[in-house]
Amino acid sequence: MFQAIESLIPIMLLIGLGAFLFKAAFITSEIRSGLDKFTYWVALPSLFIHELSDTDFQALDTGDMVLVLALSVVAASLLAAVVGLVMRLSEDQIGVFVQVGFRGNMAFVGLPLIIFAMEASGTSNDLVSSALIGLAALVPLNNLIAVLALILAKQGMSLSIFGRLVIKVISNPLIISAIVGGLIGWFGATLPAVIDRPFELLGQTAIALALISLGGALIELEIKGRIGLSVGSSIYKVAAVPLIAYGLTVAWNLPPDQTFVVMVFSACPSATVSYILTTQLGGDDALAAAGIIISTLLSFVSLAVVLALF
Q1: Rounded to whole angstroms, how far apart are CA atoms 297 and 270?
Q2: CATH number of this structure's domain 2-309
């Protein structure tokens, strides 16, 4: 239990620091937006390349883990859609409900937690590599389902959707960096120190910047009602989704380290990018904002349980 607390406290402190800095106007909306862009386009891709290029993929079997992660995302999104239809949510709400209900903040919360837990327990660095592989695999799937959920709820199916999705996937920096780092690691090549060291240093900034930005986002987002529905979607995200994921890890008999990665990712709060996507594609932005804030608060309980059990 001590290791669980030891892994969660740094995350809570950095999120709290981000919230304080934003509230004190030390960080503005423009600065926070810049932090997000830097983290997403530079720091996280650098972390991917540094870690994956040094990974022994021949000894690392993550196929079943990636499959379980993908199945849990699909199952969680489909079940959320069914719940939304049963509740007779409006077209502005159901797509947002689905997105907030299944899409976790894996890069900004899950990955830091796995790294901190690894350091606290002295686990092999292969755990981080497995997490990065799983994260890279889920990025296109999450984007696909999230965009489909929002657009189908508002407009129905159209051919133009798929063109937009393809562009999003092939231009995603996390996918590109995962492919680059993965190919280097797969073929056993070694990056020269003068190239790898900058990637390492930039990657080390990713976690802190991501969590500080998340804290600012929680202050910046405005909740305008929708509390009841947001609480429901948040409980679904941090309680029902981990149960779905756990059932799949048991069915596939995943090893303990990969089960841990799946459970952390599934217990993460709703991703802050859900709010941005909602405002861009049309939807109940108040529901998205409230769902992100409430699920983040509730996720400290779900993640503590996961750390204690797995």
Answers
A1: 10
A2: 1.20.1530
